[in-house]
Amino acid sequence: MFKPSALRDTFLTALAPVIWGSTYLVTSECLPPGRPLSAAVIRVLPAGLILLLWSRRLPKAGEWLRLLILALLNIGAFQALLFIAAYRLPGGIAALLGACQPLVLMFLVWLVERRAPAVGVISLALAGVAGMALLLDVGHRHWDMPGLAAAASGAVVMASGIYLTRRWRSSLPVLALTGWQLFLGGLMLCPVALLTEPSLPALSGENIAGYFYLSSFGALLAYALWFRGVGRLSPVSVCALSLLSPVCAVILGWWWLGQSLQGWRFVGMLMVLFSVVGVQVAGMRAARKE
User: Which residues lie below 8 Å from residue 95, measured CB to CB, with a gap of 6+?
Assistant: First the structure.
């Protein structure tokens, strides 16, 4: 039997990518078009400020450089690369490359720590990539090289951020650590948004509600749960849970927008879910042996 605490940690961490999966629907239905980086800044910066005011904790003097690197990887660089890929690639191809994060992380662990992953875990991760290809129907799409580079870099950046967050144990509690990363990452995104995008138009009530949801649930709550999980679960398990984000987006598209979810797409969704559950079970078993 697995420990109830391990099951609870997995469930709470899984809520983060499930919430992020709703971002696509909220963005397309509620936000003004053509301002993705501005949306990212509004999403993370206020949430970071709220968490900093709540926690009132400063990092130790020797932790600032590591904190800046984590904010760059987990928030600033990842958000920028994510939106570049989203603009230049069909969503299916971008998400497919993002699904390679568990494989990237396993390679990183092997490269740095010389710990080879189990063959079964590699097979599960590959099943998740294959299932994502079926779920998001990535065949016969346009392959834009800068977009592909951004999506692939985003997968490497996020996997590296998860690995280093777990490896560099911070003295900060999880809410303070989350707040500092959101705040610093938002500051990094601000000049990019100001230089590359037009100013926001007059906002409607629907726009304000969309931004509020993305900041309160999509950043403040989701990232607090995410970094809590990063500190308690294995990095590969956390990476695998990120596959739930596009699955949630597809389910919401089917339920809310009437998009198709049948045939091979449904098989792909089952493969992704099998991959996610399998990696979590393998991670719990490995933790029990330690």
Answer: 132, 136, 246
Each residue's pLDDT tens digit, 29-65 = 888 888 888 888 999 999 999 999 999 999 998 899 9
Domain count, the chain: 1
Residue with tokens 């967050």: 165
Alpha carbon distances (Å) from 267 to 78, 213, 219, 239, 270 = 29, 31, 31, 21, 5
Tokens standing for residue 198: 């037009």
Its domain, for residue 188, covers 4-289
The CA distance from 250 to 268, in Å, is: 11
Q: How far apart are CA 283 and CA 279, in angstroms?
A: 6
Burial class of residue 199, CB neighbours in 10 A (0-12, 13-18, 19+) = exposed
CB 42 within 8 A of CB 215: yes
Percent of the chain with pLDDT strictly greater than 70:
90
Question: Rounded CA gap, 61 and 48, in Å?
Answer: 20
**This prediction's pTM:** 0.87
